[in-house]
Design a protein that fits this description.
single chain, 176 residues, 7-stranded mixed β-sheet
């Protein structure tokens, strides 16, 4: 019995060391803009359905400062930053269009948006949204991913990961 417990302990320890080494040595996701659009490029188009089933495209926001945020309900950092984006929309709504593009099913997205009181447009999709995200410079497909497009349609900022209120305010102050 002791040898079985010893063997099991060594196996668990070996597995833990292997997992730890894999996590420490895994490559970082590529920087935004490594493939697809980069800062300084014209924004690509998109066309996705909103929560009421209406088609929305990037062209609908031409002439306005546009903040596009790719997210999902199952993404914890995405969930944490949604109130930050809502605050930016409320504060700068006349000069800034905030658009959330969810890689998710419409049902959970509707529930989540209602729970948080999100008022800016939310678009939903799956493989089509993944393709849009890659075209907009996120080849890793990691979430959340946020892109700022100026009034002329040029990408001015790409951010992979959770956006803090301070980061967003600082970036928006350059363009508002």
């Amino acid at each position: 019995m002791k040898s079985v417990l010893l063997f099991a302990g060594v196996a668990v320890l070996g597995l833990a060391i292997g997992i730890g080494a894999a996590l420490l040595n895994r490559p970082s996701p590529p920087e935004p803009g490594t493939s697809g659009a980069a800062v300084g490029d014209p924004r690509p188009d998109f066309r996705h359905g909103d929560l009421s089933g209406q088609w929305v495209s990037a062209d609908d926001f031409d002439g306005r400062l546009l903040l596009v945020n790719f997210w999902a309900t199952w993404c914890a950092p995405c969930r944490r930053e949604m109130p930050v984006l809502q605050d930016a929309d409320r504060e700068h709504g006349d000069n800034l269009a905030v658009v959330g593009i969810a890689i998710d099913d419409p049902g959970p997205v509707k529930d989540f948006v209602a729970e948080l009181g999100i008022e800016y447009p939310i678009l939903v999709g799956a493989a089509d949204v993944m393709a849009t995200q890659q075209a907009w410079g996120n080849s890793a497909g990691a979430l959340p991913y946020t892109v700022l497009v100026d009034q002329s349609g040029i990408i001015r900022w790409q951010h992979l990961g959770e956006v803090s209120a301070e980061e967003l305010a600082s970036e928006l102050s350059n363009w508002l």
